[in-house]
Amino acid sequence: MASNVNPTVRRRRLGQELRRLREQKGMTAEEVAERLLVSQSKISRLENGRRSISQRDVRDLCGVYEVEDHRIVDSLMQMAKDSRQQGWWHSFGDIPYSVYIGLETDAASLRVYDPQVVPGLLQTRPYAEALIAGALPETAPTDIDKRVQVRMRRQERISSPSNPLRLWTVLDEAALRRVVGSRNVMRDQLEHLVEQSQLPHVTVQVIPFDMGAHPGLNGQYAILEFPDAADSSVVYIEGVTSDLYLEKANDVHKYSVMYEHLRAQALNVEQSRQFIAKIAKDYAS
User: Fold this and answer.
1) Is 242 within a domain?
2) End-to-end alpha-carbon separation of the chain, Å?
3) I want to staple 51 with a disulfide (CB 3.0 to 4.6 A). Which of 5, 45, 107, 285 is the partner?
């Protein structure tokens, strides 16, 4: 159980260990919930890392699973303690997608498909401000500013000199044509996109309108992969009131195959760069 200061990833690893212990015992989540007089959903949330877990929870679960090795119990208890620490994003208050930020912070690579907007990690500040204000019309200006600050902080993974995030993004042409903020904002945003695409760890491809129907028409999603083999890949799908995290190998595989089709149907890297630059010039005219 490798040490990791990221509380989100730590919770996830702890949940995987607890699930493994339950399965070794041959018990269902429902049976464990009945023994501890808690809901089955609590056991599920503890195992998938979506819920903060206390040392008492770990102690009770180890008791149900009859874990006799004190070293294992102590290690899990320490993981529970560490998982309750706060990541950098908690200083901004209640962030709806904090689980995702925790995963993104620790990811080694990220594959993103977005049919409507430029992905957050590649957005300029004016574009992000206009996008968030437009998407959340009833949000107070202070909350919009907080979300923008978080988005700009997340981008440090792209510029990190020691541990940059490997980012591959496929965009639909609609994301380039939709005027967010103003034509000047869009010009600057697309020029920034071209600039970022020249980084060795950032790849940008575009699917033009004339490509017709393609596998990404169902909507946006992201695939996160991690440096530690113990951390399985995650498919993230953003929702209005709640987000979806898919971790089953079969689900991740299906989305990965779909992403390969998107990359194959998109313009290649140089063609995409030229395509984006041409639209940026159109906004300048």
Assistant:
1) yes
2) 57
3) 45
Q: Which two structure tokens, joined as six digits, stand for 282?
A: 């159109």
Burial grade of 54 (CB within 10 A; 0-12, 13-18, 19 or more): middle
pLDDT tens sequence across 60-95? 898 888 888 888 888 888 878 776 666 666 667 677
What single letter denotes the amino acid at residue 135? Answer: A
Burial class (CB in 10 A: 0-12, 13-18, 19+), 212: exposed
pLDDT tens digits, 174-228: 999 999 999 999 999 999 999 999 999 999 999 999 999 998 888 899 999 988 7
Are residue 23 and residue 152 in the same domain, yes or no? Answer: no
215-219 contacts, C-beta under 8 A, 24 or more apart:
215/258, 215/261, 215/262, 215/265, 216/113, 216/115, 216/170, 216/172, 216/258, 216/262, 217/115, 219/115
Report if pTM > 0.70: yes
- DSSP label at residue 233: -
- The answer to whether residue 190 is domain-embedded is yes
Which residues fall within 8 angstroms of residue 214, CB to CB, at 6 or more apart? 207, 261, 262, 265
Contacts of 1 (CB under 8 A, 6+ apart): 13, 17, 75, 79
Question: E strands of the chain, at which residues?
Answer: 109-114, 166-172, 202-207, 221-225, 234-237, 244-246
Alpha carbon 146 to its chain centroid, in Å, reads 19
Strands 202-207 and 221-225: unpaired
Same-domain pairing of 44 and 149: no
Confidence bin at 2 (pLDDT 50/70/90): very low
Domain that holds residue 169: 88-284
